[in-house]
Amino acid sequence: MSEQIHQLLENVLPNLKGIIDAESVIGEPIQTPDGTVVIPICRTNFGLVAGGTEFRGSGSSVLPFGGGIGAGVSVTPVAFLIIGPSGVQTVSLDSPKDIYSRILDLSPQLLDKLKSLLDRQP
Fold it and tell me: What letters, b where the CB count within 10 A reaches 16 and e where it falls short, cover 87-119?
């Protein structure tokens, strides 16, 4: 029986590999007319289940096999990376649950401001 399930998986997995790839997580860059580049970032969830059984035959040494495979994929946008003339910015679509998450979201902007302040001093 395990050989039949193995064969089912060998037939299905190459097809599923095409569904989940790097472009599912980091999307295609979008160029705007002003030169800004927007890159979507997504969260992917993937589930796969396989199973089978052998039925009792009537006098045959080979038992009939019944099996199946099910899979599910979910792609959810979570943020956008914006690269423009004013610098790099992350726009999160999830609302931060705590102050630490918010600080991490704003850290690129804070570093840019700190750098510009330090550059102004003689």
Answer: eebbeeeeeeeeeeeeeebeeeeeeeeeeeeee
Token pair of 90 as six digits: 């992350």
pTM for this entry: 0.51
Could you list the residue range(s) of the whole structural domain that residue 71 is in? 2-120
In the three-class reduction of DSSP (H, G, I as helix; E, B as strand; rest coil), residue 53 is classed as strand
Give the whole-angstrom CA distance, residue 91 versus residue 80.
5
Q: How many domains does the chain have?
A: 1
Answer yes or no: are the C-beta atoms of 20 and 46 closer than 8 Å. yes
Over the stretch 85-110, which tens digit does the pLDDT of each residue have?
888 888 888 765 677 776 777 777 77
